Amino acid sequence: MILYKGNIYENTKQKELLKSLQDDCLNTLSCTKSIKTSEVIDACDQLTKITLEGKFDHIIKPLIEEYDIPSEYFEKYVSMFSKKSLEKKIAIELGDDYQSLLPLDDKNKRSIHPLGILFHIAAGNVDILPAYSVIEGLLVGNINILKLPTGDKGVSIDLLLELINIQPKLKEYIYVFDVPSTETDTLQVFANMADAIVVWGGDQAVKAARKMAPINTKIIDWGHKLSFAYANLNSSDEDLKGLAHHIASTNQLLCSSAQGIYVDTDDRDKLDSFAERFFKIFIEVNKTHVPVPFGMKSRNAVELYYEKLVQDISKKRIWKQDGISVVTSNDNKLELSLLFRNVWIKRLPRDQIVKVIKPHRSHLQSATILAPKKEYNIYLEKLIQSGLVRIKKPIEMSDVLLGESHDGMYPLRLYSNIVETYNI
Questions:
Q1: What domains are defined for the chain?
Q2: Which end of the chain is less crowded, N or C, counting CB atoms within 10 A of the terminal residue's CB?
């Protein structure tokens, strides 16, 4: 499906619509007063209210059940699009005086303006993410062209269409296309029009965007990130339970999901004892969550069976039950797990943290520290020195806070320009 100027079209109309896309966008930029931030906020506020009242339960409830998302977490997330929340977000990212910046001097003024046209390449790991990316672009007045991720369930178009119905002016600022990544000629059309390409995805997605981007087009990448836990051998059961709940509830699918646990030890026997302790807690916590999807459980069972066969060579030790697993090894490589509640646990003495983690700086996002209070700040400093930009409580690793950055940066600043003009 295609969303174009407030209307829904079948994909068969794509070629015809592409012919007029650039002219339509440029006409909006040149002939129409830019959409006001207050108009976008008011529309989002109304969308928030009707969502919380249940208008979209038919598409949202299945997602909540599929991803085992607590209803209170969902309500908190949706409330971040309320008027109060968005006004706070803008004030944090652009400053309290964003509508009338203080002049540089008595003759030189400053003002914030949109980049112009953003081309969003959305990732498919969170169904509401594509619409969220567009809303951020709208908040500073940009025209937004969205490429839906493969397998999109229609949530983004439904939400954005409702936003347009609430505020018809937005139809000039939202274009959504269901284009596969293999259709490079069409993607190149979008890239050539854009002032910036906003990429949500892994290294290959970012690399592809850089390849298609003209030399004068900005690349803003929110690439896939790796997150992990760092634990002291004396971590509390409460922290370990919190981490287990986090892993089970996210299935390790989010950039902020812990893929594994580094432990402050160089002793393999102590590492294995810690892993066994965590596994026992993990088993009990897992019983309180919806089961791992059968297909992923089967896929991981094959992977773990292979690991069992080569244990004598790999020196890995594996604990597995009820579709979840914990694996220890002799290496300290930061890597993606098998996902869906399969956790690696590795040795990483505190004096090696920066040396091992820093080389991964472009892929780092969140970490949690499981340690007695007296050791916490020691670990915190080393993780920040390594490039981590988000340190959270174990159970809250994927909680979203109003006003927090994306991977250490504020998107609204990246989606806008500061324009300086001389006063005559």
A1: 2-224+407-422 (3.40.605.10), 226-396 (3.40.309.10)
A2: C
